[in-house]
Amino acid sequence: MVGDCNMVEEPMDRLPMRSNKAALVDALDDLKSTLQMEDRCLDRIYVRTQCSDNCFKWKIELSGLKTDHKMVSVRFTSKSAPLVGGGRWVMPTHLLYNKTLADFVNQEGMNLEDSFDILENEIEWDANKNKQTAWADFRGKFIALARKRAKVVVPKITRKINTLEALIDAISNDPTLPEDERSLTTDILKAKLSALEQRRHCSTRAMAKARNILYRDTGRNPVFYPHKRLSKIYYFSSYFSANFP
C-alpha cells in the first residue's frame, strides 16, 4: 500500500516534530492490522508481514520533478527468482570529457594506426599478430583504463548532490541545534538539492531522447519502433506491386 497519507505515526517523522490526532493514528493502525501490513524505514510503503523479508533497498528521495513531495521506493524479489547478472559494461558518459582518457585515445590511437600500416605490408598473415589482435589489445587497454577512471571520477553535479545530502543528514540529526534552526536550514538545503535533482533529471531525459531518436532513425531497434518497420514493409510491398503485378 503506497500513498500520501498527510499524517505521521510518530512525531519524529516530521520536522518540526508534532503529533497528529490520535483518531487518525488509530485508524491507520486498525487498517494496517486488518491488512496485516507493516511500515519499514519510515518510507510510508506498507507491505504484508510475510512479504517484508523479500523487500530491500527502501528509499525516500527527491524525484527530480517539480513537486513538494519525495519519492518512496522499494525493491521486491522472490527467493525463486533467477539470478540476473550486471549486464554489459558501458562507459559513463561523463568520461567522454576526461583528459586522461582523451590523451590515451590520441596517443594510443596514433600508435594503432602506425601498427596497421606496418601490418598492411606484411607478406604473410600471422594469427598472433594482425589488425584484429592489435585492435583487441587497444580496446582492452582502453576499457581497463576507463573502468579505473570511472571509480574515481564523479560528475560535478553528483558530487554537489552527495555533499548536500550529507550536510542535510548531519544537520537533521544534530541535537545541539534548536529545532527551528534545523528546520529552516534543512528547508533551504533541500530546495537547493531539489534544483540539482531537477537538472540531473532533465539531463537524463535529454540523453534518453537523443538515444531514442538515434535508434529510431537508424532502425536498430525495430521492435521498439514499429512505425519504422511498418514503413519498410509498406515500401517493399509498394515496390513489388508496381514492378511485379
Major beta sheet summary: 2 strands, antiparallel
What is the count of structural domains?
Answer: 3
Helix-strand pattern? HEEEEHHHHH
- Termini distance? 61 Å
Number of H- or I-type helical stretches: 6
Net shape: elongated
Helix content: 40-55%
Strand order of the biggest β-sheet: 1-2
**What oligomeric assembly is this protein in?**
single chain
* Average predicted confidence as pLDDT: 76
Compute the CA-based radius of gyration.
28 Å
Task: Kindly state the number of beta strands.
Answer: 4
Portion in strands? 5-15%
User: Which residues form runs of ≥5 with pLDDT under 50?
Assistant: 222-245
Overall structural class, as computed from helix and strand content, comes to: mainly alpha
Organism: Gymnopus androsaceus JB14
Protein name: Endonuclease/exonuclease/phosphatase domain-containing protein
Short description:
With 245 residues, this protein is mostly helical. It has helices at residues 22-35, 99-120, 131-152, 156-172, 179-218, 226-243, and strands at residues 37-39, 46-48, 55-61, 71-76.
